[in-house]
């Protein structure tokens, strides 16, 4: 989706941003009519609190938007965005004492708040207000982050009836074509011929053939490879999920959607790197050909895996894709997946947990996350838990019993397929359970903006 800021030369109305501590002095500088209006409407400058200021002709002359207190701002990302949807259509410009970081957050939040998933609605959204880019902000970077995020959200929000492996492939190829990237696709039985047996095993029960999608872009700079889990719907297989557990499973391709959004950001900004994206796209369905509990699969890497839960399928398809990615020894390898409920229990839906053994890479990411308004949290590749993923009858267990440390054991499982030293894995949620500022209920990207912001340090671009 193409987004834009308002023409800087066009007329626009002021959107005054006023913090609680500054409210009295700011209000004293307004006309008697404006002061009376704000008093009558009880404006207290709470974070995201909006008041439209009437013009003499009955229209809207300006607006004032509360910036709250420092303590409240620290508890909310994109807090100003609470008020953006109350603005009438037209062009607006920000005024007020905003730091450069706050101005960039305000601009990014303004764009992200405009997201609407209306594919299945008869009533289309009304025209949206537009914001002039605050002075000193990087328009290209903010637009790229917002447009990449919109792609991720739209893919996650689309139901599996309209986004199976074939449709995800079409979206993937369209993204590649937009930026002139090279692509290849391995489908169905060809996965076995190309030694991608676990991707085939997970997807073979569905009439919608499994496949591996690949994109290559860029001819200069370090090599970055992204791998995203593309389970377009997850029934759980023969270890079937209860109905309540399936309600959000259209989002089980959130890792694929997020790496595609990140890839769009990278290509749109023309970063000097060699990008490779791998997405194993499957539907974990049930039929006579479904993989069974206690089946033993042989992976691309040659490691054998005992399937102790067919609902722990994401790590199986990622394992083959990671082994393929690892064969080229990229400078940095990143996997992203909606992989475990354990990660949600550990950090909730708002944080994106990640794993890496590379300290400089972890430090770069943790420093970049607040800049990008994209929180992350590091979890450990905890060596003592390695024995939990070794079942004895095979090299690896895809679902250790006991229920402890599920996100960590899944990450350790994936690491067995990677020898590239600079590897990072994200166990994301990909969903906002309730409306939040600039993040409506539904699909959401996690970690992509933080990675984008950290890339110059990670790859020394």
TrEMBL record:
Keywords attached to this entry: Aminopeptidase, Hydrolase, Manganese, Protease
GO CC annotations, alphabetized: cytoplasm
Pfam families: Peptidase_M17, Peptidase_M17_N_1
Name of the molecule in the record: Leucyl aminopeptidase
PROSITE patterns attached to this UniProt entry: CYTOSOL_AP
Family, per entry: Belongs to the peptidase M17 family.
Single annotated GO MF: manganese ion binding
Positions of the Cytosol aminopeptidase domain: 309-316
GO BP, sorted A to Z: proteolysis
Organism: Cereibacter changlensis JA139
Top-rank lineage group of the source organism: Bacteria
SUPFAM superfamilies linked: Macro domain-like (SSF52949), Zn-dependent exopeptidases (SSF53187)
Keyword Transport attached: no
């Amino acid at each position: 989706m193409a987004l834009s800021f308002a023409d800087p030369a066009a007329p626009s109305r002021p959107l005054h941003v006023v913090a609680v501590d500054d409210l009295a002095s700011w209000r004293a500088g307004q006309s008697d009519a404006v002061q009376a209006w704000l008093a009558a409407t009880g404006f207290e400058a709470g974070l995201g609190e909006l008041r439209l200021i009437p013009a003499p002709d009955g229209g809207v002359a300006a607006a004032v938007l509360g910036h709250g207190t420092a303590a409240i701002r620290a508890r909310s990302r994109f807090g100003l965005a609470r008020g953006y949807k109350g603005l009438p259509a037209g062009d607006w410009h920000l005024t007020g004492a905003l730091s450069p970081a706050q101005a960039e957050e305000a601009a990014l939040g303004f764009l992200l708040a405009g997201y609407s998933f209306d594919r299945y609605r008869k009533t289309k959204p009304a025209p949206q207000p537009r914001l002039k880019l605050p002075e000193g902000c990087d328009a290209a970077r903010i637009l790229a982050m917002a447009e990449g995020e919109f792609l991720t959200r739209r893919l996650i929000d689309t139901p599996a009836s309209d986004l199976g492996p074939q449709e995800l492939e079409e979206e993937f190829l369209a993204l590649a074509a937009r930026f002139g990237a090279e692509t290849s696709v391995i489908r169905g039985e060809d996965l076995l011929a190309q030694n991608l047996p676990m991707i085939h095993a997970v997807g073979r029960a569905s009439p919608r053939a499994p496949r591996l999608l690949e994109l290559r872009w860029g001819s200069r700079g370090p090599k970055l490879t992204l791998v995203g889990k593309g389970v377009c719907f997850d029934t759980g297989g023969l270890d079937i999920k209860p109905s309540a557990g399936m309600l959000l499973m259209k989002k089980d391709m959130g890792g694929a959607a997020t790496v595609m959004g990140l890839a769009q950001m990278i290509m749109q900004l023309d970063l000097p790197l060699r990008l490779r994206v791998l997405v194993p796209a499957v539907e974990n369905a049930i039929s006579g050909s479904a993989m069974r509990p206690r089946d033993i699969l042989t992976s691309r890497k040659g490691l054998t895996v005992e399937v102790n839960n067919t609902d722990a399928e994401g790590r199986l398809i990622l394992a083959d894709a990671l082994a393929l990615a690892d064969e080229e020894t990229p400078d940095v390898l990143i996997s992203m997946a909606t992989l475990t409920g354990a990660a949600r229990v550990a950090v909730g839906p708002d944080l994106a947990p990640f794993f890496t053994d590379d300290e400089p890479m972890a430090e770069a990411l943790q420093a970049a996350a607040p800049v990008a308004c994209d929180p992350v949290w590091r979890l450990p590749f905890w060596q003592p838990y390695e024995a939990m993923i070794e079942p004895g009858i095979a090299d690896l267990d895809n679902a250790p019993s006991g229920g402890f440390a599920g996100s960590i054991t899944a990450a350790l499982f994936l690491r067995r397929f990677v020898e590239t030293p600079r590897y990072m894995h994200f166990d994301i949620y990909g969903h906002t359970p309730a409306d939040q500022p600039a993040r409506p209920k539904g699909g959401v990207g996690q970690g992509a903006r933080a990675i984008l912001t950290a890339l110059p340090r990670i790859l020394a671009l």
